[in-house]
Give the backbone structure.
Amino acid sequence: MRKRKKQRSPLNPARHEFVPPEIVYDLLDRFIIPDAAPLADPLPASHVGSWQIVADTGSNLDVADSTLEFNGAAGASDPRIFSTDSFARVAGRAFFWRARIVTGGDSDIFTGIDAVVTARPNDNGWNMRDNGDFRLLVDGTVLGGAYSITVDTDYDFALICRDTGAFYFMRGGTEYPIWTLIWVDDIVTSDPVFLGFSPNDAGVAQSMTVAMASTTLLTGVFSDEFGIIGDRLAGARSAGDTFSHPADCFIEFVETTVPSALQTELSFRIQDATNRWKVTVDSAGDLDLDEVVAGVPTQRGTAAAVIVDGERIGISAVDELIQVSDTAARQISYAVAANFKLEMSGELDTEGTTGAVDDIVTWPATAHHWQKYFEGA
């Protein structure tokens, strides 16, 4: 009698673990080929692809010690470097890079993707500054509300395109020890796009290094417009609708109609009927974050008259940090939200008088879900 051959896991023939999809890069540069200023144009990537030097009249760009170095600026968006090739905006198109802001000067750097190479890359991206903060770039606009970074520290950035918009991820420093979802854009439609780096219009002593840049097409879940979701309630919602979310999460919903009286109340991290977190919108368009303990709400942040009909509201809850944004800016940040931080239930409690809410979606903000799709990138 022949012994049956032992079947191996389809996940991994040797170890029963997840095997990330094979990653094929359309651009991959670890900047290991040194080149003094002025850089060759096009500048070859160390592995795949090449770069176009759009502007460097002051010869401020060089490649040394496995980094692309920005050593000053001759003027607005000068120097400026972009990928030679453009790439179609399709769900799953992924751009990765590693960069740091260097102490000194007046660093105000734009990093990201854009449809054109004649200006800063700001369709989707980051504005990093040496005062220890960054802001998000969406559709040519710097969104208000600063996020913290540490100067002289490497950060990994990832933009995963949707057919419209993109997922924004970061990893690095003490702020983002693992890949963390920062924002979900649903506005930008530019197609195709280039990956690029440039100083902002202000300041002449820019100082930044780039240690890695790549682009690839992630298949699987990222082929879908929503990527890896926790839950999705599409269309017009009703008071009492419930949803689930990871403990560390990003939640979005649309305030289709601001209530004429009372307020819209959306709860998350619900422990029970009297213990939870709430985001509310009242008839004046005021946006509030409330912590409800034993039925008693305590306001933890507010922004007056920022919500209008059709406003998209985003909630980021990562460990004890809760941040609430409208379409234009991060409006509320509360850093000591220790209560209920492991809870994973949400509910649209009420829409207020004549108020309306659409499209509640949740995503994991951290966790292995994202990490396994980024392996090898």
Residues 180 and 366 are 5 Å apart (CA to CA). The chain has a mean pLDDT of 89.
